[in-house]
Amino acid sequence: MSLLMFCPGIVEEKAGGGLLCFTAADGERLTRQLTLNRQTTKHKTGGQKNRPGTEITAPHPSVTYSVTSWLNLGTFLVFRVCTTGWMIHWLATHSELVPRYVLMMGTVGLSLISTMNMVLCYRLLRADILTSTDNTGKNH
């Protein structure tokens, strides 16, 4: 189960019952292949929109992928958002006891980290949680 949380790529079940982890390079190859398939499909249809009843839809994610996505979001909230919130709270409550330059560096650093966390949270939600099945027919 710990392999699911620390795997940097997509996790799928192998036929033998084990888990298979795809790396970022595998993801790039998959993206190129999907783009090539989309271009081939567009070429075969003459670049026209799909006829009614022949729409291309994305497959539903597997249960393993869904569980991994939610675990990824949970660990993000615990280890990034909660930890950063605790550091901000500690810095605010101990601001009189901390030297001025440390307080300024801590405030600037935590502001940057908070901004990065918001961007990463948005990207995580958009990529894993808020995926829709009808986005393959749109041009990206």
TrEMBL record:
Q: Which domain of life is it from?
A: Eukaryota
Name of the protein in question = Uncharacterized protein
Task: Give the species.
Answer: Larimichthys crocea (Large yellow croaker)
